[in-house]
């Protein structure tokens, strides 16, 4: 049996998923299964995946479900996973040829530590049709990585090299939340989880909605243990204009209850006034869309909720009313 499941949720991404497939074919280690959960695509996705299965270059498992959203696709993938570790790559991701090999080598060194629930590695972020790239701060355990790119070369390539080796022994350990709050991580991270850990939790199913923020699940896992920081950039994530990131306001407006589950989770764990205040603004701005009533009366901290209320109304008017 393979050691790692590479899960890809996809919906009408037949035009870009080939890049991910090609990067998986080039892996120096083939000890993985690519699990594609198709969320009801109506394009060429199914035809492509079945064609690649016949090529037999890598092991591929394919499931097509009704259009239930990424969260339900994730639940199904976790249910199907039998490997020791589980990793999610989006259809607009590309990984370096040594990515699986590096992940498995790292995992062999840390897997006996029961406090370790997985591995995180920083993604390089690209913006399609936008003339900028996200600047991401280095996490503890990361060293500067340069990209050797020939003049005029547009396609992603794997020529990464390390300027110097990490001075200390072992891996830095952190939760994903700490990486963003404490160490200044911005943008995307490649996450690998112990399968027994990720099987503990599911995204809730909400009637007539298809989205719950991924952070909802990651926050639950953060309570159980630490991620080790793998000292390599192994994945490039290319934002799409029709993807979640550039359509988040509409996504939240269409799925307000799922978003409120996540914000309420944050409110219950906030440990500073600032974070609590801003999370109440977020909650109030979407509560009306979700049909929530008596928000102040039901709030855990009524004073902070009352202070945030006018700002929440303004935030709703600016961000959601015209979407």
Automatic annotation (TrEMBL):
It comes from the Bacteria. This is Glycosyltransferase family 2 protein. Residues 5-137 form the Glycosyltransferase 2-like domain. InterPro entries: Glyco_trans_2-like (IPR001173), Nucleotide-diphossugar_trans (IPR029044). Pfam families: Glycos_transf_2. Keywords: Membrane, Transmembrane, Transmembrane helix. The chain crosses the membrane at residues 303-320. It comes from Eubacterium segne.
